[in-house]
Amino acid sequence: MDLFTAMDVGGSGLKAQRLRLNLAAQNLANANTTETAEGGPYRAKRAVLSTQESGSGQSFDQALAGAWGGQPKAEQVQVQEVVESQQPPEQVYDPAHPDADEEGYVTKPNIDTVTQMTDLMGATRAYKANTMTISAAREMAMNALRIGQ
Amino acid sequence: MASSLFSDKFAVFEKSLNLHQQRLGVIANNVANADTPGYKAKRLEFEDSLRQAVSGGDENLTMARTHPGHMGGGGDLSQVTGQVREVTQGGRVDGNTVNTQQELERLGETRLIYQVVSELTARRASGLKDAIQSGGK
Q1: For residue B80, which of B23, B12, B27, B24 has the smallest C-alpha distance?
Q2: B42: pLDDT confidence band, cut at 50, 70 and 90?
Q3: Which residues of B fall within a CB distance of 8 Å from A125?
Q4: Which helix (H) or strand (E) holds B31?
Q5: From the CA of B12, how many Å to the nearest CA of chain A?
Q6: The total number of structural domains that make up chain A
Q7: d(CA A44, CA A46)
Q8: For A11-39, how does the pLDDT look when each residue is reduced to its tens digit (9 = 90+)?
Q9: What is the CA A124 to chain-centroid distance, rounded?
Q10: Is A79 among the domain residues?
């Protein structure tokens, strides 16, 4: 695996973590949304990540490097799917609310603010770790270029 | 030992740079997959085989080379490859065994060694260049 492939892997990490961050932000922003296009209250969403090994839908160079043998494979991360949380929604008594049922209960989104905040922090840290691998690859490439001077 | 101007030092440096580059790739894999359920962290190990190849096999059992054409005692640099080992111990509940903190430590170490080896290579190359340029004057 060469340095550019390592950068690509870091880039895939950045992309996945950015989506996690977006989902956490979306969940927090919709913590009180009781009406959605699909009907019913908003449901918390989360990303499921998976490994995409070289050779599966990647460039020829990466597939060749993976098949070369002896060389470690590039394992990019990808967002496999975005799933909705199965946690039951919260029932809040608020008869004045336009979405209240006959008994006066409003079905609020199933969003736990603390969980979302920890997810937000985790995504931020992981994003930063990926930028560090990319900058290390870049620095090493620069060092290698200096050999010929 | 017949030591030529372009001795096998460059081959050792090249091998070391190449292997550290691959190790960075493995670290990048681990960091990118730090949140992938079931992912097992990987390590690239090559220090022992590289050391053996450079020192010409086992330090206690070095074969004598009485001719430059002789092969070293088991130390063939071109045969040195990194071995990928999976970390299966100490995982999280979701089966992931990546420890990002540890990976970043390894990342720092790898980039430092790469910097040192590339600096050594550059100095050796510039030394040769000096010898070539001032030799004819």
Answers
A1: B12
A2: very high
A3: 100
A4: helix B9-32
A5: 15
A6: 1
A7: 7
A8: 999 999 999 999 999 999 999 898 888 88
A9: 10
A10: yes
Which residue would you say has higher pLDDT here, B14 or B1? B14
Predicted pLDDT of residue A53 = 75
Strand A75-84 to strand A45-53: parallel, antiparallel, or no bridges (unpaired)? Answer: antiparallel
Q: In this structure, is residue A38 part of a structural domain?
A: no
pLDDT in tens, A108-147: 998 999 999 999 999 999 999 999 999 999 999 999 999 8
Is residue A71 in some structural domain?
yes
Tokens of A23: 């989902």
Domain coordinates of chain B in residue numbers? 2-46+81-134
Task: State both tokens at A88.
Answer: 């039951």
**Sign for the pseudo-dihedral over CA of A33, A34, A35, A41:** positive
Check: complex ipTM more than 0.85: no
The Cα–Cα gap between A16 and A48 comes to 9
**Residue numbers in A near B27 (CB within 8 A):** 133
- What token pair was written down for A26? 């979306």
B134/chain A closest Cα distance in angstroms: 17
Residue A126 lies in domain: 3-31+45-84+111-147
Cβ neighbors of A133 (< 8 A, separation 6 or more) are: A6, A9, A10, A13, B24, B27, B28, B31, B32, B107
